[in-house]
Amino acid sequence: MRFDPFREIEELTQRMDRAFGNGIAAQTARLAPPVDVHEDEGGLELTLDLPGVQPADIQIEAENQTLTVQAKRNYTRGEGRTAHRVERAYGTFSRTFSVPAKYDLTKVEAEFDHGTLTLRVPRSEAAQKRTVQVRTGGQLSAPKTVDAAQTTPATSDTPATETQNAEVSQGA
Fold first, then answer.
1. Which residues contact 67 (CB under 8 A, 6 or more apart)?
2. Taking residues 72-88, what's their average pLDDT?
3. In this predicted structure, what is the pLDDT of residue 142?
């Protein structure tokens, strides 16, 4: 088994918590669910694992280029039951993500399914790809895509420069 200093530190922290009686309270402070963040041309997608959390106990706030997710997982101990070990994290957590300005936080969508919260943050309109028309000879013409292998013969009526308009994409 390889030496993992982070695991050793975590185990030491857990032993200290148990020794000083901070069992459940200390685990509550460390409750931070794992998250996956993906990006594509449509925007960002954040996926958080929230097992045991009820949808009513999830709060999502989006403002000032930050996205905050808060959730609560309650611990219930039945009457007449003794807890010999409580390792799962309970309580409230808050996780904040900085979101670049090219994403529109006013259009965040959230979906909660089988303990997985998925947040979708679309790109803002200003950051969307768009087509720019190119003027040739002072005239605005419809954009066309020209294949580099394709040759267009010039006629006496139409100069070669006007038949080879190109589509220009401006990326975000």
1. 46, 60, 61, 96, 97, 99, 105, 108, 119, 121
2. 86
3. 64
Fold adopted by 34-76+86-145: Immunoglobulin-like (2.60.40)
- CA torsion through residues 6, 88, 114, 73, sign: negative
pTM flag (> 0.90): no
Sole residue written with tokens 């420069």: 161
Domain residue ranges of the chain, discontinuous segments joined by +: 34-76+86-145
Nearest to 109 by CA among 121, 101, 96: 121
Mean pLDDT confidence for 46-52: 93
Residue with tokens 């929230």: 50
Please name the amino acid found at residue 19: A
Give, as one character, the DSSP assignment of residue 25: H
